[in-house]
Design a protein that fits this description.
By secondary structure, the protein is an alpha/beta fold. The protein is 35% helix and 23% strand. The longest helix is centred in the C-terminal third of the chain and has 26 residues. It is globular.
Length: 444
Amino acid sequence: MTNVAVISLGCDKNRIDTEHMLYSLSRGGYSICDVQDADVIIINTCAFISSARQESIDVILSCAELKKTGRLKKLIVTGCLPQKHEKELSGLIPEVDAFLGAFEYGRLIDVIEGRLGEKAEDDFETAENGKRMLTTYPHTAYIKIAEGCDNHCTFCTIPSIRGKYRSRKTEDIVKEARSLVSDGVEEIILVAQDVTRYGEDRGENKLIELLSALETLPVKYIRLLYCYPERVTDELIDKIASSDKIASYIDIPVQHVSDPVLKLMNRRTTGEKIGELVDKLHSRGIVVRTTLMVGFPGESEDDFNKLVAFVEKHSPEYAGVFAYSKEDGTAAARLPGHIKKSDKLKRVKRLGKACAESTARYNASLVGKMIDVLYEDADFEKNLFVGRAPTQSPDVDGRVMFTARSADVGRIYKVKIDSCDEYDLYGHAVSCTEGDSSADEFTE
C-alpha cells in the first residue's frame, strides 16, 4: 500500500480543501501517514502574503530533501501557490513532480498514479459537496459557504487566486452540516472570504436564511468568521444576539480606521462607522475579533495613532495585527509612500501591545463568573483540562484551563473562572451542562 502524507498550510479554508483530499486518498486505497514514512507527500500551500509564500517554499524544499535521504518517491504541491505561480515554480523547484491549482483536487489520485491528464475546470460546488476527513477535534468542523471574493481590497491577491465570489446552495450547506452533526460535531464554524456576502451572487443575501436553517439542527454552536464590517447589518446582529445556538462572537476584519487609509484600501466604510459597529456589537453582548493592518502605503503617524486609539477606546476582545505586505499585481503595490520594514515592525509591536492589553482587560472581566466551556484537550505540564468558551475560536483566541476530577472531550462544562493571564482563563468545573451531576463530581 502506498503511504501518503499531507501537509496543510494557511487558513481554515485551506484546511477544508485538505480534508477533502484526505478523504479521497483514504477511499482510494492509500494509507495516510507521517512525513518520514511517506512514499508521496502532498503540500497544500498558501500564497496570501510574502511570509505565507516563504513558509510554503521552505516546506517544499525541506520535503524535497527527503527524495535524497528517505523513501519519498513523489512530491506534489497544491493550492494557492501553484494557482498563482506555477510557471515560475516549475523551473525553480524541479524536485516537485506535479503542481495542482486551488481547484484541481479531483486530479490528485490520477497525478499520484502518473496520469497527468488535462487541467480541471473550477468546479467549486461539486468539490465542496464531497465528503471530508476532519483534521479538527471530532466535535468541531469548518464549513466553507462560498469561494472567492468580489471586494477587491487594493492590498489583496485573493480575487486573482480564488476568483469571483461564488456561494454554495443553502440546501447543500445544510445537508453537509446535518451529516457532520450526525457524526458527532458539536460546533460548526462558517467560513468564506466574506461570509456576510453569502447568496448575493445568486440574487440576494441569504445569510440570515442560512443561519435559520442551521439553527434547526441539533448542534451546540454556530460560529461566524470573516464578516466584513460594512456588511454587518442590524438584522444580523439581532440574529446573533437572540440565538441560543449562534455563538455571541463575530470576526470582522476591519484592517484600519483612518479614513484616508480605508479609502486607499478600497474599503467601503469609515473609522467612525467601525467604532459605532463595535460598540453596537458590545451592547448586544457579542465578542469581537478583528484584524488590523499597519504600514499600508502612505500610512502617517497620525493614521497609525488612530488605530491605537481605536483599540484603546473600543476594546475589541481579540485582534490579530500584521504588517502590510507588498503583493505584485495589486493596486496597493503601485501606490507611493511605501513604509520601511523596520518602521512597520515597530508599529506592529506597539499596536500588538495595545491589543494584548485589551484582551487582558476582557479576561479580567470574566474572573468570578461562570461560563460554558467545550472541553477539548489536556495540558499535562500544568495538569489542567483545556477547552474553549463560545467566545473563543479554535487556534486564534485564548483558551480556558480548568480543574476537574474527569472530563469527556466534546462535552460542555460549567466552569467558574478564578484567574486569568494575558491570553488564557483559569477556573474549576462546577457541573456538566449535559447532565444533573453535582459539583462534587467535577471539582477537586
